Amino acid sequence: MKNSSKRYLPKRFTEVFPGLAARPKVRLLGVLIWAIVAADCVACSTLGAKPWEHDLLAERAMQLDAYPIETSMDDHIYFSKEASSGGRSFAGGGCGCN
Amino acid sequence: MQLKPKLVANRVRGGLAAAAAGLLASGHAKAQEAAAEAPATTVDSALLVYHEVNRVQAVEPVVNVSHKIDEDSTFDFGITADSLTGATPLGAVSSTLPQSYVRPYKVVPLGTPVTVTSASGGSTVVTVPPATGAKTETLAATTIVPPNTYPLDHGFSDRRVAGHLGWDQALTQNVKLDGGIAYSKEHDYRSESAHMGLSQDFNGHNTTLSGAVNYESDLSFPIGGTPTPLTQMNGDWKGPDATLHEIDALVGVTQVMSRRWLSTLSFSYSIAHGYQTDPYKLISVVDAVTGQPTEQLYESRPNLRRKESVFSDNKVHLGRDVISASLRAYEDDWGIKSLTADLRYRWQMSPVFYLEPHLRYYTQGAANFFHYYLVSDQAIPQYASSDTRLAKFHAPTYGGKFGVALNETSELNLRVEYYVQHGNGSPAGAIGQLQQQNLFPDLKAYTLLLGYTFAF
Predict the structure, then answer these.
(1) Cα(B444)–Cα(B451) distance, rounded to whole angstroms?
(2) Beta partners for B455?
(3) pTM of the prediction?
(4) For residue B66, how far is the Cα from the chain centroid?
(5) Which of the two ends of chain A, N or C, has the fewest CB atoms closer than 10 A to its terminal CB?
(6) Contact criterion met (CB < 8 Å) for A83 and B334
(7) Does residue B280 have a pLDDT over 50?
């Protein structure tokens, strides 16, 4: 199975991203998230609100990204000052070196 | 000089939370909007003023415009400009003795008169002796750091312009596709990216499954060239430009738990390959007995980095007020693990005014190649960085936001926040004079954000 993923990816692609050609590392985090997602999907049929009950959910304050510029600025400030990034969305736009 | 604090680049609008929330609310919201003939265009604008105590200062205006073409299609674009000045840590340790730092500054034709004032931050310009037969010479800036002073580079000033374009398209009543591109440019760094996402609603718009990918290609062209990692600091012009490629993938599920509770959970994975070293950062090599710096080397980081994170966000409507709580767990193969908790309480004082206190807490472990310094009688490792952003630390943020609804389609808000980073400035086993130095001074930053949104 050594480097088996190379059979499915163009050589140039794996040269640019050698991490894709390496054997995937099974991490607890990944297992945990998929377990939670699966559990959530099973449960979701019993959760929720009727169409006429979406009034509060439609308010701006209830949107998950209600103030996108604010979120964007926060993400990049923290991206520039901390070692972690991502999670909520993709942080694009460069190195944030200092 | 460079220093790309890129304080605020465009966040690529590929976030699944936003896409999912839009879809989740779509069934009801669309009906409401149609009935009320909602405005087709929304303009979201903000001005950020960022102030770090004794370090970086930044001012950044942002404008995003979103236009609804029809019931199924939305086009958006945005532009950002920022201006940054101030000081940033060099990465070197403090000393009881004065220290001198040098960096290449400019290449000029041989014999060009040197103007001392051409360097910023109180540094002095010197000419690096050219090679025999050379037609150009390199100017370098030297800076003297006084004794017992944390070495900072005071000489940087940077401007950046960034923009993005995006498109959301509902393919069916339950499926939405979105995509976009982003571009960012400053005088020593360029970034280009593209993303695409797909989301599907289930259970009567109560559940959304989403997936998105992003590709980013960056080019670094530092002032003074790209130094060879772990070579000694000097004023010579360095190597060629360096590239970085990154692929990010994100999957998530958003669930309406009840009429008052919205919850989302996502998992993201990234692979970055290419130049990830900070070309301006140094790491000191100190004497094994006295702790005095004997050399300053350019830092070195791995070319490959794999990152993954789990993010959860919950919003609960209390009838008038709204609570938002999120949690993120992160780890990467540089050895960094972190946890981020964020809590906001939107106190809707009246239909017009709201006040939103905000508390964020972040904690991270150190990268496995982080060292405060290297020791002269020990082997130099393959990778080494003393950048405290790769160190173990914790950082609370305290903030508050005040908003005013000017009418049904516009809002003005003002947010003030204070961020402080606490690390270990006196690590165990510090050598000699390093025991009396603060190797991780607190970083303190204030942000003021003025936002204005209107629709027409």
Answers:
(1) 23
(2) B42
(3) 0.87
(4) 24
(5) N
(6) yes
(7) yes
Q: Which of A62, A81, A92 sits opposite B11 (nearest CB)?
A: A92
Chain A nearest-CA distance from B430, in A, is: 24
Alpha carbon distance B11, B9 (integer Å): 6
Q: Is A13 touching B (CB cutoff 8 A)?
A: no
A82: pLDDT confidence band, cut at 50, 70 and 90?
very high
With tokens 């990034």, the residue in question is A85
Task: Find the CB nearest A92 among B9, B333, B348.
Answer: B9
- Sorted by where each starts, the structural domains of chain B and their CATH numbers stand as 16-98+146-455 (2.40.160.40)
Please report the ipTM that was assigned to this predicted complex: 0.88
Domain ranges, ordered by start, for chain A: 4-81
3-class secondary structure, B22: helix
* CB-based contact, A35 to chain B, within 8 Å: no
Nearest to B347 by CA among B356, B358, B335, B339: B356
Distance between CA atoms of B329 and B45, rounded to whole angstroms? 30
**CA proximity to B200, closest of B259, B265, B266, B253:** B253
Q: How far is B246 from B273, CA to CA, in rounded Å?
A: 6
